[in-house]
Amino acid sequence: MKLRRWQFRCVEQALVKFRNEENHFLCLATPGAGKTVMAATLAQQLLELGMIDLVLCFSPSIIVSSDFQQALEAHTSSRMDGRLGSKGQSLTYQSMLSLEDAFWALFQTHRVLVIFDEIHHCAGDNLENANAWGQTIIQHIQGRAAYTIALTGTPWRSDRIPIALSSYCQHNKIRCDFIYGMAQAIQENVCRAPSITLVDNDRIIVKCGDTTEKYSSFAELLRLSDCSYQQLIDNDALIVYLLKQSSKKLMQIRKQHQNAGGLIVAASVDHAYKIATLLERHLGQRACVATYLDEDAHGTINSFRNSAQPWIISVGMVSEGTNIPRLRVCCHLTRVKTELHFRQVLGRVLRMGDIPGDSYLYLPAEPNLVEYANRVVEEIPESATIRRETMPNSDDEKPLAIKLQEQPHIEEITEIIFGNMPVGESQTNPDDPQPIHVSMLAQSYDTTINVFGRFRQELLQLHRLCARESSLM
């Protein structure tokens, strides 16, 4: 396989650094640029040069781990299944916690290259501030591996803990050995230019018991009412509108490229199946659903990747690293509102693949998400586009409402209606600055996303145990 120019340059720079007796390399490349192929090529060359004996790769999910195994086997012409006679193994970060001493003893007897995909999942520059995966790296890999290469497209963490194996310069900016940004990737036709549509509503009615409140935007609703973002994205009217706009664009693309696909990122398993039902009921389109609780989510994603199905709905599965080049449109309906997650979701539709054209992201105009979208456009003003779209509210249509559940001690919000509100009845000036609210779920993203069923429960239990032990010390 012929390397892209950036991949060739990155491999060359890593080899130069390793030959100069430095053993760690950090590559920052925009999501969708092809980090997997680059790392597999580096592994191949290190094996051919006789600089390593084995290759280990750790990544955040089974689907990405499988993709890495296939890439490593294709480039090295060797098995990477971890069995006798293989040249290495591709594993998930979750599996680190169950590896036995015999596995880690390989670092004493062999020269090992370790590849860390999406290294930002591993936190800590010492055992005191490290998460479970960061602790494992410090205890078993750092200073023991012959060489390590870390890959990321989003080099920061929501909790601001240092990323494992990384060094920082002034203003807490991470020091990278190689950087390949989104602007350059779009210019070189490696990634698609993003088109982002922010959907809002200027006539929102919220009923709380006997009282009725009116709001002129989602930002105002979330700032001044007891309505949560989860309740907003669970609203049928909003879901259906976003689905219609996303589907309209996808169907336009599929007229020329029949296998173009769309991704819907949902907030929960129940939410995903609700979206699937609404998609079929209102648009007559079926979607496959892949969640972290599914026994064969890996198979579902692979089947979708190799098919011409229009839609896949994901919960904690197709967020980062997953390679489905035919994805062109994404509908963002997850409650996770970190910039890291926003960029990783956007990255799923940036891969160029064999279908030319731009990528399209549709999402609610929630203040955090609006800020992240604006930052993307600021980075690539010549390529990216952003627009705000207001949901129509027709006098002829029956107002759409949902029932919302609150804690017993809080007055229950019974309905949110996207209806008609006379001009001038807004509760506040819509031009006033909107403060940004970061939810607890968003803050805990790094410990919950992309974690499969039984591993997810074990990991959360481990974090609670560590927290209790720390409080007793």
How would you describe this protein?
Helix 1 (5-19) crosses helix 2 (35-48) and helix 10 packs across helix 11. 37% of the residues lie in helices and 19% in strands. With 473 residues, it is an alpha/beta fold.
Strand order of the largest sheet: 11-12-10-13-14-7-15
Q: How much strand content do the residues show?
A: 15-25%
Can you tell me the overall shape? globular
**Count the helices. How many?**
17
What low-confidence regions span 5 or more consecutive residues with pLDDT below 50?
395-400, 402-410, 421-473
Number of strands: 17
Largest pleated sheet = 7 strands, parallel
Helix vs. strand class: alpha/beta
What is the residue-averaged pLDDT?
84
Give the helix proportion (percent range): 25-40%
N-to-C span? 54 Å
Over all CA atoms, what is the radius of gyration? 23 Å
Give a concise summary.
37% of the residues lie in helices and 19% in strands. It is of the alpha/beta class.
Q: What's the structural blueprint in terms of helices and strands?
A:
Layout: H1 5-19, E1 24-29, H2 35-48, E2 54-59, H3 62-76, E3 88-92, H4 101-104, H5 106-109, E4 112-116, H6 132-141, E5 147-152, E6 178-180, H7 182-187, E7 194-200, E8 204-208, E9 211-215, H8 218-224, H9 229-233, H10 236-254, E10 261-265, H11 269-283, E11 287-291, H12 297-305, E12 311-315, E13 327-332, H13 339-347, E14 359-364, H14 367-379, E15 385-390, E16 401-402, E17 413-418, H15 440-443, H16 445-448, H17 453-472
Parallel strand pairs: 1-5, 1-6, 2-3, 2-4, 4-5, 7-14, 7-15, 10-12, 10-13, 11-12, 13-14
Antiparallel strand pairs: 8-9, 8-17, 16-17
